[in-house]
């Protein structure tokens, strides 16, 4: 059961390619589901997960920490609901809380921290303050836990 009404919810169906021979989702896909829900969340705010600035430098959100506690299996053809909350909005990072559900059953609880970074042509990363309109839209989001 989804825990509170202010959560962003992304829904998806488990595909065959995500399962093992028993039709059970491989554990690594839970991280993919969380990332997919994060991207859907950004799109819901009319934001992009990465964009190229006029100077050619890409601004993106690499993960700096992640955790997933598995509570039960997802299976082929299950309809999953992935909930997304912002636990903490920092100056340079966002801490996310995510739940993965199939109907009333909670299958996993995850956490992820992403940092706003410049991705330079030489493949180096530099964390930067979250700029507008990102900061404003995230601060105004109904999914920010207070």
Task: Walk me through the topology.
Blueprint: E1 8-13, H1 28-44, E2 51-52, E3 58-60, E4 63-70, E5 79-89, E6 93-102, E7 105-115, E8 117-119, E9 125-127, H2 134-140
Antiparallel strand pairs: 1-5, 2-3, 3-8, 4-7, 5-6, 6-7, 8-9
Family: Belongs to the 4-hydroxybenzoyl-CoA thioesterase family.
Pfam families: 4HBT
GO molecular function: 4-hydroxybenzoyl-CoA thioesterase activity; fatty acyl-CoA hydrolase activity
Through-space gap between termini: 21 Å
Care to count the β-strands?
9
CATH second-level architecture = Roll
- Number of discrete helical segments: 2
- The count of domains is 1
Helix content: 10-25%
Which overall shape is indicated by the principal axes computed on the Cα atoms? globular
User: Which CATH class is shown?
Assistant: Alpha Beta
Low-confidence stretches: none
Topology pattern, helix = H, strand = E? EHEEEEEEEEH
The CATH homologous superfamily corresponds to Hotdog Thioesterase
Largest sheet: 5 strands, antiparallel
Q: How much strand?
A: 35-45%
Strand order of the largest sheet: 1-5-6-7-4
Kindly report the average pLDDT value.
Answer: 92
Q: What is the CATH topology? A: Thiol Ester Dehydrase, Chain A
Q: Could you say which structural class the secondary elements and strand pairing correspond to?
A: alpha+beta
Radius of gyration equals 16 Å
Describe the model:
With 146 residues, the chain is α+β, with helices and mostly antiparallel strands. It has a single domain (8-140), classed as Thiol Ester Dehydrase, Chain A (Roll). 16% of the residues lie in helices and 39% in strands. The chain is built from two helices and nine strands; from the N terminus they run βαββββββββα. The chain has helices at 28-44, 134-140, and strands spanning 8-13, 51-52, 58-60, 63-70, 79-89, 93-102, 105-115, 117-119, 125-127. The strands form two sheets. It has a five-stranded antiparallel beta sheet with strand order 1-5-6-7-4, covered by helices on one side. Strands 2-3-8-9 form a four-stranded antiparallel beta sheet, with no helix packed on it. The relative contact order is 0.23. The mean pLDDT is 92.
């Amino acid at each position: 059961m989804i825990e509170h009404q202010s959560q962003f919810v992304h829904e998806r169906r488990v595909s065959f390619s995500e399962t093992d021979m028993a039709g059970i989702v491989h554990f690594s896909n839970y991280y993919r589901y969380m990332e997919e829900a994060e991207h859907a969340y950004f799109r819901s705010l009319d934001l992009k997960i990465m964009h190229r600035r006029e100077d050619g430098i890409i601004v993106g959100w690499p993960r700096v920490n992640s955790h997933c506690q598995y509570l039960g299996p997802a299976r082929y053809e299950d309809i999953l609901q992935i909930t997304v909350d912002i636990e903490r909005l920092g100056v340079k990072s966002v801490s996310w809380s995510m739940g993965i559900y199939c109907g009333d059953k909670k299958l996993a609880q995850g956490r992820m921290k992403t940092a706003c970074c410049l991705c330079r042509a030489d493949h180096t990363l530099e964390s930067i303050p979250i700029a507008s309109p990102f900061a404003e839209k995230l601060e105004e989001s109904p999914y920010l836990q207070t």
